[in-house]
Amino acid sequence: MARLVQFDRLGGPEVLTLRDVEVGDPAEGEVRIRVDAIGLNRAEIMFREGVYYEQPVFPATLGYEAAGVVEAVGEGVSHVAEGDPIAVVPAFSLTRYGTYGDHVIVPASAVFPRPANVGAVQAAAVWMAYITAYGPLFESGEVRPGDHVLITAAASSVGQAAVQIARHIGAIPIATTRDAAKSQRLLDAGAAHVIVTAEEDLPTRVKKITSGEGVRLAFDPIAGPGVETIAQAIAPGGHLVVYGALDPRPTPLPNASSYPQLTSRAYSMHSISRDPGRLRRAVAFINAGLAVGSFTPAVDRTFDLAEIADAHRYMEASSHIGKIVVTVD
């Protein structure tokens, strides 16, 4: 028997229940792992509440990321073997698989060996954040060495990853936060500049930092009407990439008469994680950065698996900087 977090109705953290469940053996193309650590993501809160793009099928479970050790492999799996230390990347649907447990089955396409110098907690904190940031900041080719990149809500795990990737490729990361108390931690994490949006005018400060040019790319998880303010900080020919919807209000397309040379688009990490070729390239890039120390995921706090509801409450409070990780004894 395995311990698995499940829920039977939509709602707050209180709906999460730790149960004994028979896991069984992996089928063709699947891997069973012993879980050592689980990375939490905002998408899982949305899934639990019923506001994600997929709806739970009850009894439902959760979890896009984990680190652990392979226990068994199904037919056709050859890239990992029993006993291998691995990481699980978010390359599947939460309606079919989840990582919130001590022993789970996941698709082999989402399982990758992890570098020898990367421990379980760190490995569980990597993949959603770094794959999300990798697409617009590296794979697209839109950011070049010396370019300024605006990273909004930069205290999040994705924001922290974006700061590190920007630095890694020679770009200049400008971080934003609403909370002045987070400024120094963002600077310590590698941001070249921090803008406190509750106290400063974003376009004015960006233009001052960039000598009037604006940023090459803005990377935003908030959406809503605020994108028009962000657009004013983007250089001609630059790019606005929206990868989340923390603001539930409608998101306007920046007016073409005001921003004639601005490219604006929505982006999802799944466009990479569910494409085998793009995912292999992303994993190679991120593992290389981990191996040389350019990428170090920031872990704000860890919880035990039995404290999963408290871990969700902590994430909902939005006071953390970096990743929240659940450990499994």
Automatic annotation (TrEMBL):
<keyword id="KW-0521">NADP</keyword>
<dbReference type="InterPro" id="IPR011032">
    <property type="entry name" value="GroES-like_sf"/>
</dbReference>
<dbReference type="InterPro" id="IPR036291">
    <property type="entry name" value="NAD(P)-bd_dom_sf"/>
</dbReference>
<dbReference type="Pfam" id="PF08240">
    <property type="entry name" value="ADH_N"/>
</dbReference>
<dbReference type="InterPro" id="IPR013154">
    <property type="entry name" value="ADH-like_N"/>
</dbReference>
<dbReference type="Pfam" id="PF00107">
    <property type="entry name" value="ADH_zinc_N"/>
</dbReference>
<dbReference type="InterPro" id="IPR020843">
    <property type="entry name" value="ER"/>
</dbReference>
<protein>
    <submittedName>
        <fullName>Zinc-dependent alcohol dehydrogenase family protein</fullName>
    </submittedName>
</protein>
<feature type="domain" description="Enoyl reductase (ER)">
    <location>
        <begin position="11"/>
        <end position="326"/>
    </location>
</feature>
<keyword id="KW-0560">Oxidoreductase</keyword>
<dbReference type="InterPro" id="IPR013149">
    <property type="entry name" value="ADH-like_C"/>
</dbReference>
